[in-house]
Amino acid sequence: MFEQFHARNPVHPIAAFACSLMALAVGMVCARTPYIFAYIGLLAAVFLVYGFYMAVVLLTLGMGIFGIIVGGISALINGTLNMFWISPARCLLIGVCVVPLLSVPPAQLTRALNQMKFPRLLTLGMLITIRFVPIVFGEIWQIRDAMRSRGIDTRWWSIKAYAPKTLYRAFLVPLVMRVVGISDTLSLSVETRGFDAGSKNATVYKPVTLTARDGVFIVLVVLCGAALLLARFIFQL
Amino acid sequence: MFKKFKVRDVIFLAVLAAVNTLFGGLAMPVMRSEIFGLQTLVTCAFYALFGVVAIMKVRKIGTLTIYGLFTGFPLLFMAPVMFFNNFIGGLLAEVIVLLLFRGYEKKAAVITGAALWMVLTVPLSLPFSIWFNGSSYEHFVNTKAWQTVVIVLGVVALSILGAVIGMKIAGELQKAGKLRPSDDK
Fold this sequence. Notes:
The complex is a heterodimer of chains A (237) and B (185). Chain A is mainly α and 237 residues long. Chain A has 2 domains: 3-104 and 210-234, no CATH class; 108-192, no CATH class. Chain A contains 9 helices and no strands. Chain A has helices at 13-29, 36-49, 53-78, 86-97, 99-102, 106-115, 120-149, 164-192, 212-234. Chain A starts with 12 loop residues before the first helix and ends with a helix. With 185 residues, chain B is an all-alpha fold. Chain B has one domain (7-175). Chain B is built from 8 helices and no strands. In chain B, helix 5 (107-124) packs antiparallel against helix 8. The longest helix of chain B is centred in the last third of the chain and has 31 residues, at 145-175. Classes of the chains: A mainly alpha (237), B mainly alpha (185). Chains A and B meet through helix 1, helix 3, helix 4, helix 7 and helix 8 of A and helix 1, helix 2, helix 3 and helix 8 of B.
């Protein structure tokens, strides 16, 4: 689902999760100080050093543009440009804070959770949820094609495509049918490969370990947060 | 009362959660809206609909919590706070259904559970909204009370509607033998 964001050498998934949450929490607490941009810049620099180029570039660009649009709309509604910068700042912050998580392949996260004795069934389910989003998206397009072949105008602006009867009979029912079909096939496949909910002696392929590199990453993110908190609350900048 | 989850139960819930995630994307254009609960209003009918289908197939205690966990998982990568919103909403809805109905044997329990799930995410999303929009709790209560009431009523109505449609779809598919409850042989 997020393959383009995955880093070649991601940080430990749990460290990435903790750092994302912590960076976001600190940023939100201090979101109304202009120094938030320096904080976002520092975080982006740390993430770039760690090789999360794609995620940093795409997310800062995307969220930055989104924030400017939203801020512009808010400014138009409020009739003032005074607090215009808050929207882009918040959007950028959210974009940058999810970078460590996005750069972690979901398989790494499930491996880490498995090592922490998290129930295997749940880690399997979470992995399937992420992996199947594009597949289900493809199925929806196929259902749309099927609707079109039956004479329904499926262009997004066509009101007929959203008629409740059409949506129900030609879209929702086939969609649930496909989900049932896909999950039955997948269950059979998983069980055939020996995956069993009760097996306790399962091993983790390529165990994920916390390294010194991850430790430095955590320290750097904490330092960024501490700098912002100091600027905001101690020095009242 | 408590039944063990099988691999096929979890896989069904996970694939259905992937569908739900896609429908959750409908909230993207209104993600930055300052109208409290608008994101939930846009997606609640679909979440309730698929929630009912999930419970009708896997009629076990814990289904809604696990489903909440799975639907929240992709959000973890995009907005970590939203993960807790979905997961805790599912957990609370499940607890309430257990207290009221002691399981999912009755159709009313299934509809209540799935509809409650989304309704409960509204108060849970209050801290998220305050963070995201930089508003204060007082701002929501004092200046936008009527708006909040309308949105919450809308969420309740759409959740129930979604759950009822989900029940209709599940009923049809069960009649056709396509959506058998997981414990039926």
